[in-house]
Amino acid sequence: MKTRNRISIVIGFFIVATIFYCGCGHKGLIKDSKYPDGKFFNKPYDTVWKAVHELLFVDLGCVEKEVNRKKGVIETDWITRMTTDGTQRWKIDAEIKAKENGAVVYIIKDIEMREEISKETRNYKEKSKDQNPNAGWKNIDVDQSSVDSMYQQLENKLR
Predict the structure, then answer these.
(1) Enclosing domain of residue 51
(2) 102-114 and 39-41: which strand pairing?
(3) Lowest CB count within 10 Å: 13, 78, 106, 153, which one?
(4) Is residue 56 part of a domain?
């Protein structure tokens, strides 16, 4: 009889743990992009390239890091901003591929959050010139609606 009770208790514990994990332990639903495979525009490559370039560097005010029209690659430099959660930085990568009747645009947005470093921990080091400027940043989830809105802005530019 005691063995049966122990097995029931163990099974009950796993059921409760599973319910807790599935019900409370998740991050929540992340909205998927409407354009997981990029967005096709029925316009010439040069017209689409110009619109993407204008969107990123004129409308959004990004700074160029790499721009290669022949390869169809645009990469912006990091833009840093202070929020109530801490210091964030973001950048955008775009790829434009020529197709038979137009061009496909792929937009990727990366967001990173600065990790807090306490002066009391052993890992704290004074900033020096040779320290990696990308150290201490952690990727965070991107709200796909912000990327989708860039596709919509691009669509409006190409009308």
Answers:
(1) 28-157
(2) antiparallel
(3) 13
(4) yes
Confirm if 82 and 70 have CB atoms less than 8 A apart: no
CATH of residue 110's domain is: 3.30.530.50
CA distances from 89 to 69, 73, 100, 134, 142 (A): 25, 21, 37, 11, 12
The per-residue pLDDT string of the chain (159 residues; one tens digit each, 9 = 90 and over) reads 566 667 777 676 556 555 555 444 433 333 466 888 899 999 999 999 999 999 999 999 999 999 999 999 999 999 998 888 888 999 999 999 999 999 999 999 999 998 765 555 455 455 544 566 667 888 888 788 889 999 999 999 999
Q: What is the Cα–Cα distance from 106 to 39, expressed in whole angstroms?
A: 7
Contact present, 133 and 20 (Cβ < 8 Å) = no
The answer to whether residue 5 is domain-embedded is no
Please give the tally of structural domains in the chain.
1
Is residue 108, in this structure, part of any structural domain at all?
yes
- Whether 14 maps to a domain, the answer reads no
